[in-house]
Amino acid sequence: MARTRPEPVGVRALGTAGLAVTAAGILGNGLAYVAPVLAARQLDAADLSALATALGLIAIASVPGFGLQLAVAVHHARHGHSDTRRAALVTATLCAGALVAATPLLTTALRLPVEVSILSAVTTAAVVLSCRPLGELQGGQRFVRLAVGMVLLAAGRYGGVLVGLLLGLGLTGSLLLGAVSAVLTPLALAALTRPTTATAAPTAPPLGAGRILTGCGATLAMLVVSYADLLLARQLLPAGDAGAYAVGTVLTKGALWAPQVATVLALPRLARGDRRSRTVALALTGACGLLLVLASASAGGLAFRLAGGPDYTHLGGYAPLFAAVGALYAVVFVLLNAAVAAGVRWPAAPLWAGSVVLVVTALSIAPRTVAGLLWCALGTAVVMTLAMAVRAWATPPRAGQPASPDAHDQG
């Protein structure tokens, strides 16, 4: 059966998709926030620390899964539906295997029970496997189903743990129930990715390991650069200033992730060389960032009060600077995804270079104050954004690729 391009997506359909994906992201982040809050009320200090550590390990070890999602989405948008299950299985095995191999180290260095490490590995494998169908849905522009899939993944990742805590099952019981719910998630997502039209046997080229590594590298680079200043604050600043900086980074993360729905919706078209989609995504992301910076400038004290409480209200003057760092990183995120979609070699290189510059500058010449580190982070973000923008406009658009037969289906 001949592959055809997707029908143009209407403004109303994009609006519905954007609202659905945004709501799904908010719900997922909400569940991630509720888990440690509930654990603090149900577990003693030792078990609470162990649970928080386990959830952190799962988050770190699952990063390649979101790189896999990015790679699958780009591959699907270019070539249509193809069998990417083997690539997902290999990625999940490597991620979970790394945790299993590290069990002796985790047991001694972090004082984690062996069963906690093993259950974390099982959950990690399930999360990574779940990212493959999400990539298929994103690449096929089935955004409403993508939103449903995001909710299912969040529920599978945290729902079992929450239920275990509510039932008083303790640390191991809650993680065990969480692993069970996570393992069921890929099965539930499989129903969402069924093609809506009959298709012939896939003829697309296989998804290569290089593409997955590129997606993983890009995802990891974005994670590192967005947390580098927070880690530096912990190392370089006095305890009180480090805490204040941590509160400020809440505003940074808000400005970074608030407009990410634009990138999610634009990625399939970016993979087919549609520069107009890149321009629209950049415009929306930049406008959102500007609004957040202006809002922080006019209500900085309130922003810090909401982020950290009344003890941090006096830091309101720094609010627009923290928001500006996040807003610039949001633009970088759009450009990074566009580079991955365009097949640029080493798409995350400017981010790794920027991270090194930030660390060297902060350690060598930046004043050991909140303002000194913040201005260093802002300057690095500006340079990084300019470097990504120059490379983006110097990169020729990729020739259009065939699209999947079901790419027009928004549901």
From TrEMBL:
<keyword id="KW-1133">Transmembrane helix</keyword>
<feature type="transmembrane region" description="Helical">
    <location>
        <begin position="212"/>
        <end position="232"/>
    </location>
</feature>
<feature type="transmembrane region" description="Helical">
    <location>
        <begin position="173"/>
        <end position="192"/>
    </location>
</feature>
<feature type="transmembrane region" description="Helical">
    <location>
        <begin position="143"/>
        <end position="167"/>
    </location>
</feature>
<keyword id="KW-1003">Cell membrane</keyword>
<dbReference type="InterPro" id="IPR050833">
    <property type="entry name" value="Poly_Biosynth_Transport"/>
</dbReference>
<feature type="transmembrane region" description="Helical">
    <location>
        <begin position="87"/>
        <end position="106"/>
    </location>
</feature>
<feature type="transmembrane region" description="Helical">
    <location>
        <begin position="348"/>
        <end position="366"/>
    </location>
</feature>
<protein>
    <submittedName>
        <fullName>Polysaccharide biosynthesis protein</fullName>
    </submittedName>
</protein>
<feature type="transmembrane region" description="Helical">
    <location>
        <begin position="372"/>
        <end position="394"/>
    </location>
</feature>
<feature type="transmembrane region" description="Helical">
    <location>
        <begin position="279"/>
        <end position="303"/>
    </location>
</feature>
<keyword id="KW-0812">Transmembrane</keyword>
<feature type="transmembrane region" description="Helical">
    <location>
        <begin position="112"/>
        <end position="131"/>
    </location>
</feature>
<keyword id="KW-0472">Membrane</keyword>
<feature type="transmembrane region" description="Helical">
    <location>
        <begin position="244"/>
        <end position="267"/>
    </location>
</feature>
<feature type="transmembrane region" description="Helical">
    <location>
        <begin position="315"/>
        <end position="336"/>
    </location>
</feature>
<feature type="transmembrane region" description="Helical">
    <location>
        <begin position="49"/>
        <end position="75"/>
    </location>
</feature>
